[in-house]
Specification:
The chain is an alpha/beta fold and about 500 residues long. It has helices at about 15-20, 25-35, 50-60, 65, 85-90, 105, 130-150, 165-170, 175-195, 225-230, 255-265, 300-310, 320, 330-340, 345-360, 370-380, 395-405, 425-435, 450-455, 480-490, and strands at about 5-10, 35-40, 95-100, 120-125, 155-160, 205-210, 230-235, 245, 280, 285-290, 385-390, 410, 440-445, 460-465, 475-480. Strand 3, helix 6 and strand 4 (about 120-125) form a beta-alpha-beta unit. The longest helix is centred in the middle third of the chain and has 22 residues, at about 175-195.
Length: about 500
């Protein structure tokens, strides 16, 4: 059964990026290491104030559209460009949740609310405009949010923590500010623990985004154009992002809402005129299947299986042919042995399959569309690659004469691990040779057999089906061809 997609966005107001380098934030670090943490430069046209920045984050459009120009929201256009919790609730009927202490975000104070119609809302206004009162308000906010996240079922949530920003305003960016950021990280940890405590957590696919709106001057305060004020950041982890990934382009505030929609598999309507888009990322390594993925050898393999079956008295049907795609020579030989009417040894069938397939490969093969562009793009970006095949070493080496062995840091062929696909061993071996955890690797596959192997290894997967349709799922994207993947990573279109 497919896992249910869910999203949590945690907004921590006014946290300088350079401060994160010296303050212990283990829970934010966990999100970042499971995905990415990237700087965000506040758009030149956007005042470095909370109202405009959070409006851009929540709506996915820039200040010229949402028209929140300051911390007084009067004159806004949030009815035309609503926040993601409102849009998902009102247009899709999804359950959404917002928890915040800053009044304009959730009440009519100062021209609000920014979050206009979530299906569930928590609000604890601070008792006074002091750092201590804001810490208390954030604590109450997180207490309620933990209960909702652990025991209810919001599909998209936004939780706002404001104490670090208020502490910087009152006391500057010194020790008290750093302590407030540490406290915010502990609260983030409680929110993440609430997700893991959900009874249905194992059946869910959670994307977590943690974002700040702006930085601060050393003495506290913001609103100007200094680098420390204009530099924000976004951390993102989820089933569609590999661990340690790096964005291929600068990340923007308006991308956050678009990332929420992408995490929920919700394609934005063109009438929304979003300015943001989901952030494309390069993984730390790419593990590529060979037959049917990089080279068009699946028809040759199928024909080899038919020829060997026919030589032993059986005509392979189309349905039976589907069972041999992505399988090793040994697995296919064992399968053919059950079909052939005359007794024949497994080793004899295996040798016949390998020899027949190798002869076809050596007579000439062609890369699949986009394969060259993809390998070139990965080489340009210095992303390590591995070839992971269910074919024997002789066949792999023959194919490498066409693809070029220099394109790969390592290659894994059938027989070089204890078990082959659909078991995870080949992909685990490739990741180990690259000295990376499997979750940091993206696998590119074409068959259900290979996809099962990659997912069992804990890798994210891009599927470009060659013969058998495969459905998308959390952690698994399906593309028409390799050209689309190369283009997403910045390679020029073919031709």
């Amino acid at each position: 059964m497919p896992r249910a997609r869910r999203v949590l966005v945690v907004g921590i107001d006014g946290v300088r990026l350079d401060t994160l380098a010296r303050v212990p934030t283990p829970h934010l670090d966990t999100v970042a290491s499971s995905g990415f943490l990237a700087p965000v430069e506040v758009d030149d046209a956007t005042p470095t104030m909370s109202g405009p920045c959070w409006a851009t984050i929540a709506t996915g459009v820039r200040v010229t559209k949402h028209a929140v120009w300051s911390n007084d929201f009067s004159g806004h256009r949030l009815g035309v460009f609503p926040d993601f919790t409102t849009r998902l609730a009102r247009q899709d009927g999804r359950r959404t949740y917002v928890a915040a202490a800053w009044e304009p975000l959730v009440t009519v104070a100062d021209g609000g609310p920014m979050f206009r119609r979530p299906t569930r809302l928590t609000h604890h206004a601070p008792a006074a405009d002091t750092p201590g009162a804001w810490e208390d308000a954030d604590e109450a906010t997180v207490r309620d949010a933990v209960a909702v996240l652990a025991h209810e079922d919001p599909e998209a949530s936004f939780v706002y923590l404001g104490a670090p920003d208020e502490t910087a305003h009152h006391l500057g960016c010194g020790t008290a500010y750093e302590r407030s950021i540490e406290a915010a990280d502990r609260r983030l940890g409680r929110l993440l623990a609430a997700l893991r405590a959900r009874p249905s957590y194992d059946q869910e696919a959670w994307t977590v985004l943690v974002v700040t709106d702006h930085g601060h001057r050393d003495e506290g305060g913001h609103g100007g154009d200094g680098e420390a004020e204009r530099t924000a950041w976004l951390a993102c982890a989820g089933p569609d992002v590999t661990a340690g990934a790096r964005p291929v382009r600068p990340v923007r505030h308006e991308d956050v809402a678009a990332q929420v929609y992408a995490a929920l598999d919700r394609t934005p309507d063109s009438h929304w005129t979003l300015d943001g888009a989901a952030v494309p990322t390069l993984p730390r390594a790419v593990l590529l299947d060979m037959d049917g993925t990089l080279v068009d050898t699946e028809p040759l393999w199928l024909e080899a299986a038919r020829e060997v079956a026919a030589a032993h008295g059986h005509t392979l049907t189309e349905e039976e042919g589907g069972h041999v795609l992505g399988r090793t020579c040994a697995d296919t030989a064992a399968y053919l042995r059950t079909l052939c009417p005359r007794p024949v040894s497994g080793p004899h069938l295996e040798t016949s399959l390998e020899d027949t397939f190798l002869a076809a490969v050596e007579s000439g093969i062609h890369p699949r569309p986009g394969a060259r562009d993809l390998l070139d793009r990965l080489a340009d970006a210095n992303v390590p690659t591995a070839l992971v095949s269910a074919s024997p070493r002789r066949v792999v080496d023959a194919v490498l004469k066409t693809l070029g062995g220099e394109a790969f840091r390592t290659t894994v062929a059938d027989g070089e691990t204890n078990r082959s696909k659909p078991h995870p061993d080949p992909y685990l071996e490739a990741a180990a040779r690259l000295q990376l955890p499997p979750e940091a690797c993206l696998v590119v596959e074409d068959s259900p057999t290979g996809t099962a192997a990659a997912e069992a290894a804990g890798c994210r997967v891009v599927v470009v089906p060659s013969a058998t349709p495969i459905a998308a799922a959390p952690g698994r994207r399906v593309l028409d061809d390799l050209t689309a993947l190369a283009r997403a990573w910045g390679a020029p279109p073919q031709g």
